[in-house]
Amino acid sequence: MEWDEFAHWGKYIADWSADYRKTLRDRPVRAQTAPGEIKAQLPVSPPEQAEAMDAIMADFEGIVMPGMTHWQHPRFFAYFPANAAPPSILAEMLVSTVAAQCMLWQTSPAATEVEGVMVDWLRQALGLADGYTGVIQDSASSATLSAVLTMRERATGFTGNQDGLSTKGQLRIYCSDQVHSSIDRACWVAGIGQANLVKIPTNGPRHSMDVAALKAAIAKDRANGHTPAGIVAITGGTGVGACDILGPVLEVAKAENLYTHLDAAWAGAAMICPELRSDFWADVDDFDSIVFNPHKWLGAQFDCSVQFLKDPQPQLNTLKIEPEYLKTTGESVTNYSEWTIPLGRRFRALKIWFLIRSYGLEGLRTRIRNHILWAGELCEELRGIAGFEIVTEPILSLFSFRCPGDDDCQQRLVDAINDDGRIYVTQGLFGDRKIIRFQVGQFDTTRADVMMAYSVIKDIWQREIKPN
């Protein structure tokens, strides 16, 4: 492809993209294809000769698009959002065009320096204390793995990487029973093991970690010769939005000399609203590591996860490796590849710069406040349907409910809703019962979109699930 042809198709795709986003409400939210249907339309072998771009685009529209679930659909109420606001998309187009590998300061000084400033902009926006620095990771999973590896190394006197773990005894990590599965996976990958991830029961209206049970678990482990290494707390857990009470957890960590990590991947974005901080963010400034995802609720295109660090040195001691070909001579600079597991790095900070400048913090706050308000309104409407139960009350913009019937009825309702296509929701488990999760967070959703969910849920329940 020559660059003139690239320019032609670039304009075509930009127009296609705008039309796609403007007409999303006309599409079913979830892909309606059957397993194997897309694969069956693809050639089994690659072409030997070049093909025209118009043929490639035609196949993209005819084969690929029917198999896509539309995460940017305004009635996407499943999982958590993976938003992509227009300025963020434009920034990503520029990043893809320049195509820099930003692993070191010298491989693109602007990428490193913009990243440092954007992390600090976000620190200020979230009300975190001066002194926190940080790094942009690909996802919260990578940030959590980095923190767990740091817990491991700190607990072993930073000898685990060199010596291995065979002589280190059983290292123990503590968290609540509401954490995301990425915490489990981090313990797998770090060599700590599932059996050494101690899940503490939760209680209270926000399903918070039982601090007395946490203290007892640590004491029991020390008595049995195990080595407590760290605590992972959550603000806005994936299942039902569980939030630990941060101050008491931090008091335990300080008394036991344990490294702490806070998973605020989804809910952290809402802390740009100052009025929410006293309920969800109190005492946050004593955590060693905090992660939140601008690519969820804030509008930055995936992937973009910020890990704040109270002191970056323990993580650098854990992850930094510096062969001769990566050394930077001259003045001291920051090389963010030393802060993360991957060496290669994209210029993720550019989309944060474009996003915040395009909307301003107040424009982003307005969206989040609306989502919380509308989720509460919908919750009250569903509460009024005969036999429906609100299982977990709204935490920010997430709540869960059940229709009358057993767990099979809940799954049948979820499947029927998603097959209908007008909205998209997911199921979950809470208290050993299946629930239906509902979260509001898509960047362009409106109150009308959210309240339409009431009509869809009630209609499908009465028409397809409710016993005669």
Quick take:
With 468 residues, the chain is α/β, with parallel strands linked by helices.
Please provide a written account of the structure.
There is one protein chain. The chain has helices spanning about 5-20, 55-65, 85-100, 110-125, 140-155, 160-165, 180-190, 210-225, 245-255, 275-280, 295-300, 315-320, 350-385, 405-420, 445-465, and strands at about 135, 170-175, 195-200, 200-205, 210, 225-235, 260-265, 290, 305-310, 390-395, 400, 425-430, 435-440. It has 15 helices and 13 strands. The chain is globular. β12 and β13 form a beta hairpin. The model has no long low-confidence stretch (mean pLDDT about 95). With about 475 residues, it is an alpha/beta fold. The strands form 3 sheets. A 7-stranded mixed beta sheet has the order 1-9-8-7-6-2-3, with helices on both faces. α5 (about 140-155) crosses α7, α13 crosses α15 and α14 (about 405-420) packs across α15 (about 445-465). It folds into 3 domains: about 5-70, dopa decarboxylase, N-terminal domain, CATH 1.20.1340.10; about 100-345, Aspartate Aminotransferase, domain 2 (3-Layer(aba) Sandwich), CATH 3.40.640.10; about 360-465, Aspartate Aminotransferase, domain 1, CATH 3.90.1150.
